[in-house]
Amino acid sequence: MINFELPVDKHGRADPATYIHRIGRTGRWTRKGAAINFVHDKKSEEIMMAISRHFGREIKLIQHDNIEQLTELLKF
């Protein structure tokens, strides 16, 4: 799952319910899945961190130029 834009509600705040609905399309039937979120500014970083806090799960930050780290994280 790739989020080009993180979901927000009508007030511009993080929308964890929509986020979990989107990424719920990955990892079905005991399979592993991955969600990639594009963070492009301070606001999108704040939204991602709010979603992370809401679910109590770490969302790993990978710099755009670190393809090796991304490749390693996506190995199932």
Quick tags:
76 residues, 38% helix, mainly alpha, Rossmann fold
Q: If strands are numbered along the chain, what order do they take across the biggest sheet? A: 1-2
The shape, in one word, is globular
How many helices? The count is 3
Relative strand content: 5-15%
What composes the largest sheet? Answer: 2 strands, parallel
CATH topology: Rossmann fold
H-E string: EHEHH
Question: What can you see in these coordinates?
Answer:
- With 76 residues, the protein is mainly alpha-helical.
- The chain has a single domain, classed as P-loop containing nucleotide triphosphate hydrolases (Rossmann fold).
- It has three helices and two strands.
- A two-stranded parallel sheet has the order 1-2.
- Helix 1 links the parallel strand 1 (2-3) and strand 2.
- The protein is globular, with a radius of gyration of 13 Å.
- It starts with a strand and ends with a helix.
Short précis:
With 76 residues, the chain is mainly alpha-helical. The protein has helices at 16-23, 42-55, 67-73, and strands spanning 2-3, 36-37.
